[in-house]
TrEMBL record:
<feature type="domain" description="O-antigen ligase-related">
    <location>
        <begin position="207"/>
        <end position="347"/>
    </location>
</feature>
<feature type="transmembrane region" description="Helical">
    <location>
        <begin position="343"/>
        <end position="362"/>
    </location>
</feature>
<keyword id="KW-0812">Transmembrane</keyword>
<protein>
    <submittedName>
        <fullName>O-antigen ligase family protein</fullName>
    </submittedName>
</protein>
<feature type="transmembrane region" description="Helical">
    <location>
        <begin position="382"/>
        <end position="401"/>
    </location>
</feature>
<keyword id="KW-0472">Membrane</keyword>
<keyword id="KW-0436">Ligase</keyword>
<dbReference type="Pfam" id="PF04932">
    <property type="entry name" value="Wzy_C"/>
</dbReference>
<feature type="transmembrane region" description="Helical">
    <location>
        <begin position="120"/>
        <end position="141"/>
    </location>
</feature>
<keyword id="KW-1133">Transmembrane helix</keyword>
<feature type="transmembrane region" description="Helical">
    <location>
        <begin position="165"/>
        <end position="183"/>
    </location>
</feature>
<dbReference type="GO" id="GO:0016874">
    <property type="term" value="F:ligase activity"/>
</dbReference>
<feature type="transmembrane region" description="Helical">
    <location>
        <begin position="63"/>
        <end position="85"/>
    </location>
</feature>
<feature type="transmembrane region" description="Helical">
    <location>
        <begin position="195"/>
        <end position="215"/>
    </location>
</feature>
<dbReference type="InterPro" id="IPR011990">
    <property type="entry name" value="TPR-like_helical_dom_sf"/>
</dbReference>
<feature type="transmembrane region" description="Helical">
    <location>
        <begin position="244"/>
        <end position="264"/>
    </location>
</feature>
<feature type="transmembrane region" description="Helical">
    <location>
        <begin position="91"/>
        <end position="108"/>
    </location>
</feature>
Amino acid sequence: MSASIPASRPWLYALLPFVAYLLSWYYNGQIIPLLALSTIVYLLWGAWVWWPRLRAGLPWPRGFLPTFMVLWLLWFGVTLFWSGVPYSSWFYFWVLGSLPLGFLIWVTMPNAVQERAWIWLWRGAVASAWVLSGMALWQYYHWLRQGIGWTGLRPNGPLLDTNSFAAWLNLLFFPLLAVYFAYDAQRKARFLGRQVDLLGLFYLATIAVVLLASFSTGSRGGLLAWLCTIPFAFWGFRRQSGALPRWLMIFALVLLAFLLMNYAKGYDILGHLAPGYIDHNSSTVARGLMWLATWHIFLSHPWLGTGLGSYFLYYPAYRLPGELASAGTYAHNDYIEYLAEGGLINLGFLLAFAGALMYALYKLLYKAGKSLNLPEGRRLEALGLVLGVFAITGHALGNFIFYNLPLSILAGLFLARAWRIYGYHGETAPILPRIGINHGAIAQAVMVVAVVVASWNLLADGATFALFSSNGWLNRVIPNGNQRAGFLLKAADWITLARPLATQPHVYLANTYLSLAERDKSLNASHRKALVESALQQYQQSLVGIPRQSGVLNSIGSLYLTQAQLLGLSPVQAKRKALLAWRHGLAINPESVSLRNQIAQLAFVRHGDVSRAIAFLRAGLQRPLFPFPRSNLQMEIALTQWRAGEESATRATLVRLLRENPNYHPAIAWLLSMKKS
């Protein structure tokens, strides 16, 4: 280590990425403050690492992967400029970009601290393996005591999806396996001899608990990814002294973990892997339908895609009949989702990443002793890290993997460490002077501005979520309702200025203005008109960051209809504008029962054309609808028939509704009242 670097600094280099990793655990695509904090910590880590490098003119690591990761990160950033939903894409830029960003920061760390920093980060990763495994086993046995059936007995740790959690465990398993083999092979004592090595035993115990946790998830995708990756590990570790008895020990642990964690489930996962079951299983069939719908999204936006993270906003309009097994949040295949959201170039980057992993495996399996000239222990360490990332990259063919923030962060760090072992060949001459920037302070200033702007937006996004999406905590801080409303009004005003693309503050202001215009009788007509116009402007502004918001379009249509006089619209103009907004919302979300019913009532029933209204409502039944919304739509059809005096048709609709959903109590009560009358 350089004498100019304090001895405490290596663990500080590892602390920031580890904190970012911990903060990401419960993000799950929803809790924006966690994404903001995790990303800001990452940016601060990057600024710290790159500050002296920029002053030195930015010498850059030689090799394909560092350059590729720069281009990949830049591509993610460029896609924000044509995304159909830029505000949502901003969040997924950081989620998906955390892999290349973490890689770039780690590989550019000073040589003097990189090795020792990894020791600290690896200790944190091992500790996280124990914590995650403990979560899985606690969930498993807790739910088992509660009597939950085998279909629900699938731990998900801190994530919302059990398959992604299984991928996370695979990502940790293979590096642990490699470190155990590398360490235990160095011992001179005979394997399973009387002399006990505590560190080797600790690694073996860690592998055992990770295997227990992994098999407790019952993830077919996780198991298949593990089965496809373990032969590479077996081949790569075969030359180790005493490799065979160690492998026998590992496979004994695998068998024991499988038997223990699948006993309560009747070993159903074996049947789930049978071709006949896969062909007819609802979740597998649903995946096929989702992939076909995602392909249709790509065909509709073939060049540049719909924008990062936009899948869940476009999917309702493309959902195919028969697919009601998913919430439609992700495509359960990162490759086809990359294609839909970013076009062929986006998919090309992901395929190139997978190809780079395959090439790394080739080098570490076949050329490590020749061209790489690596010591066996370091080769195994790099191989284990690459195998972990390789396992989740393959798993991404059947689940959403890289859309999970902790997996992207850890994959980037693991691959960076592996590349520093097998692919690092020194650095280029400083790049900045060669492009005409002779003062590193200029580049440093640009970096500071970029970090400040990004952090500012992320903090505003975190505040938006905390104040307008999940603000139950505010009731305890400000118990008085009027004071709380006043505070939120001021906060919304501030955030709309600081972060114009944020949607919730605009919607909050619009709802507040509209409520004041409708309830405050002391206001004269001009004041009410100003409030209504302001509400309309805020609703429209909320569509800038995320245009595909059927709920906001629903509110805009209702505003035109109810406030036509104040807006100076004739009844015909108000109706036309309301229908236009509602039809736009229904096109975005054809599953919306309320929008479909409002259009039917305004466009047809008000003009006495009940038959066309019922036909329009029934057309919604041809869309894929979950049972409860489907019953609601059938109830609206029955109400429309009843108001038109069609009693027999109403009764037939209610009977058909109850045949599909016998527990729909409003229909039961209505039929009973009709029978009594």
